[in-house]
Amino acid sequence: MIDISWPLSNNTTGYKDRPSVRIESLKEFDRDGACESAIWMTSHSGTHVDAPVHMLKEGKTIDRLSLESFSGHCVVLDLTMVLEKITSQELQEHADLIKDGDIVLCKTTNSYQEPTAPFNSNFVYIENTGAQYLVEKKVKAVGIDYLGIERNQPGHPTHSELMSNGIVVIEGLRLAHVEPGRYMIVCLPLNVIGLDGAPARAVLLSA
C-alpha cells in the first residue's frame, strides 16, 4: 500500500498561499487527562476531490458522487519531462497505457516540491487540449500532483471539459516516490453534505 496523500499540518502549502490548514489543541494529557485537537481546513486542502459543482453551477456536490468515481484501476504516467503544461501531445505519447475507465494520475516535477513550501504559481498543469484528449480516451478520473489541475486559463476550461463529461478531478497528490505503471487506487473524500469538494486520503495498491 502506497500513500500518495499530501501530509497536513499547520505549515501545509495552501493554494496561492491562502490559509489551508489550522490545527489547535483542545485538550492536553498533562492538564486534561486526554488529548484532543480541532482541525480547520478548506474543502480544497492538501489531497482533495473536486466536486462538479466547484465549477459547474448545476453540478453534483461531493456527497452525491459514487465512491467508484475516484477508486479503481489506475495508471501513473511519467510526465516529469514536461516543463509547463500537459497537452494532448504529451498524453498521446502514453496512449497505449491508458485504458477505458482508467483513473489517470499525472506524475510531474510538482511532486518534488516540499509539502510545506511556498505556493509555486508556475506549477505544471493540464491544458485544455490535454483534458479533451482524456475525454476521448474515456477515462473515469484524472489526478494531478499539485493543488490545482490548471492555472491562468480564463473560464477554467480544463475543469469544465473534464467535469462536463463526468470525469472526476483529484488534486494535491504526492507521487515522487511512485514508479509509473498500473495500480489500483483508493481515494476517499470526506462525506460532507452539499460541498464543492473535500479532502481525501489516497493510496495505491498493486494492480
CATH class: Alpha Beta
**CATH architecture tag:** 3-Layer(bba) Sandwich
Provide the domain count. 1
Structural class: alpha/beta
Q: N-to-C SSE series?
A: EEHEEEEHEEHEHEEE
Global morphology: globular
Helix content: 10-25%
According to CATH, the fold-level topology is Glucose Oxidase, domain 1
Number of helices: 4
Write down the Rg. 17 Å
Oligomer class:
single chain
Essential attributes:
207 residues; alpha/beta; Glucose Oxidase, domain 1; 12 strands
What does this structure look like?
The chain has a single domain (2-7, 43-206), classed as Glucose Oxidase, domain 1, CATH 3.50.30. α3 runs parallel beside α4 (157-163). A hairpin with a 7-residue loop joins β11 (181-189) and β12 (197-206). It is 12% helix and 29% strand. It has helices at 29-32, 88-92, 128-136, 157-163; strands spanning 2-3, 21-27, 36-41, 48-50, 72-78, 85-86, 103-107, 125-126, 141-144, 168-171, 181-189, 197-206. The protein is α/β, with parallel strands linked by helices and 207 residues long. The strands form three sheets. It has a seven-stranded mixed barrel with strand order 4-10-9-7-5-11-12. It is built from four helices and twelve strands.
